[in-house]
Amino acid sequence: MARHATHFSKPNEQTKILKICALIPIEAFLNFISIVEPNAYVYLDPWIDVFQAWALGSFFLLMCEFVSPSAQFRDVFFAAFKVPQRRRNRDPGLGGLEWYRKQWFAVFQYLLISIGVAIATDITQAINKYCLESNSIHFAQLWLSIISNISVAIALTSVLRFYGALKKDLKHHKPLAKLVAFKLIIFLSFVQSIIFQILRSQSVLNETSTLTYADVNIGIQTMIICIEMVPISLYFHYAYDVKAYDITQARPLPISDISGSRFAQADLEANPQLRSTMINGLEGQAPTEHTKQLYAKHADARYYGGFLGLRAWASVPDPREIIRAIRFAFVMRSEAIKMKMMSSSSSSSQSNAGVAMPHPPPPPPCYDYHSRG
Fold first, then answer.
1. Residues 43, 48, 50, 55, Cα dihedral to 10°
2. C-beta separation of 26 from 51 below 8 A
3. 265-268 own/partner pairs: CB under 8 Å, 24+ apart
4. pTM for the full model?
5. Residue 286, exposed/middle/buried by CB under 10 A (0-12, 13-18, 19+)?
6. How many angstroms separate the CA atoms of 322 and 327, rounded?
7. What one-character-per-residue DSSP string does 187-222 give?
8. Which long-range contacts (CB under 8 A, 24 or more apart) does 161-167 make?
9. Which residues, 6+ apart, have CB-to-CB distance to 182 below 8 Å?
């Protein structure tokens, strides 16, 4: 995190990377507090899910940035995007833009659900209606666990679909390594919770003269998670390598630049060598990959983190981007529903009149969630 903060050359991307990486120290700290103060475990554990949802949303936004920093270009890109279909599925499926917006909504619903579950857990625990050890329908633990598991399954499935559809286009950004690094945290926590639940239910792990109730139900599991954060953090150094943001190195470009770069006039004028290469070396031709990498290496090459990367560090707890993304998800959802209702109403009226509808309804207008707040 410190290296990204001091090499803050692409704020739009690195802000999201810092938020993803922050999950490791946050989860380790909250689990450590649960070991020291077991009575706080039930109150703190659901908030770990909130931070995981925050990081998952940031990961999704990072992949969107890899497509293009411009929300308008992303809408154009996905409008022409052919969504991969399963072999057995003969249904033509959704259009690219509608598919993209559904994945967006599916990812960010998890953050809202996790916040609601965390608040409900704390309230029901305080009034003795939660009961961590019970799966009875009379306690909140069962219902909140079901809601949380369904929500996280939907969000993770959407991220996997999004990655699977774009993995070839985003290959130069190492999306698989980034996805594996993030999923390791959630996967290990999920699997371990199941294993420990089985061990306790089968009386394999019981209280002894050396193991207390807190050790069996909370301490051992949370301690293992804290230890696992160390090797995972080392893997994060590879997956979210800062080399791509070093201004002395050629940097990977978003799809929008690779598929047809439009170089800013100010950048070309500020760099005579690059301008000469572009004008004289490529007269009447599209930019080559070498020229694009030259542009990515030299144009607008500076760090924006300030002294010791303080501006970059300040962006980590800033919730405005996530709030705008959630709002954008619901705006897209509501407009998609309206357009579907209008389409159904129009089709019905045309059918009753015996006239075929000449054209499908226009898609919802493009929105830039970065500009809305």
1. 170
2. yes
3. 267/295, 267/299, 267/300, 268/299
4. 0.76
5. exposed
6. 9
7. HHHHHHHHHHHHHHHTTSS---SS--HHIIIIIHHH
8. 161/103, 162/60, 162/63, 162/103, 163/63, 164/84, 165/81, 165/83, 165/84, 166/63, 166/67
9. 20, 23, 55, 56, 59
Alpha-carbon distance of 175 to 171, in angstroms, equals 7
Amino acid at residue number 92: P
Q: 3-state secondary structure string, 12-43?
A: HHHHHHHHHHCHHHHHHHHHHHHHHCHHHHHH
CB contact at 8 A, 182 and 55: yes
Residue with tokens 């953050």: 111
| pLDDT in single tens digits along all 373 residues of the chain | 888 898 888 888 889 999 999 999 999 999 999 888 988 999 999 999 999 999 999 999 999 888 877 777 887 888 888 887 765 554 455 678 888 888 999 999 999 999 999 999 999 999 989 988 777 888 898 899 899 989 988 999 999 999 888 888 888 888 888 888 888 888 888 788 888 878 877 777 788 888 888 888 888 888 998 998 999 999 998 889 888 888 877 666 666 555 544 434 444 444 444 444 443 444 444 555 444 544 455 455 788 888 888 989 999 988 998 999 888 888 877 777 777 777 666 655 555 555 544 555 555 444 454 544 4
Question: 38 exposed, middle or buried (CB, 10 Å; 0-12, 13-18, 19+)?
Answer: middle
Q: Are 78 and 97 in contact (CB under 8 A)?
A: yes
Report the chain's terminal Cα–Cα distance, integer Å.
27
Which residue in 161, 18, 176 sits closest to 83, CA to CA?
A: 161
Helix 175-201, helix 140-166: angle, nearest 10: 150
Phi (first) and psi of residue 275, to 5 degrees: -60, -40
Other beta carbons less than 10 A from residue 62's beta carbon: 22
Angle between helices 41-67 and 11-21 (to 10 degrees): 150
Q: At what angle do helices 175-201 and 23-36 cross, to 10 degrees?
A: 20
C-alpha 9: how far from its chain's center? 21
Q: How many CA atoms lie within 13 A of 236 on its CB side?
A: 23
